[in-house]
Amino acid sequence: xxxxxxxxxxxxxxxxxxxxxxxxxxxxxxxxxxxxxxxxxxxxxxxxxxxxxxxxxxxxxxxxxxxxxxx
Length: 71
Hints:
The protein has about 70 residues and is mostly helical.
């Protein structure tokens, strides 16, 4: 719940990079909990934000996490 609250707050503030980073942490939490289906849309949203911001390193890392979901 804390990551969800933080993501909502960063979204309200327009802090896109912090929002995307928090979404990645939330996605990892879902993966660790065995809920890949819930992780996928969260990570896809993070990836879109990173792409929009031009955060190449973060884009690569998040894309790799998404690829691992398909394995």
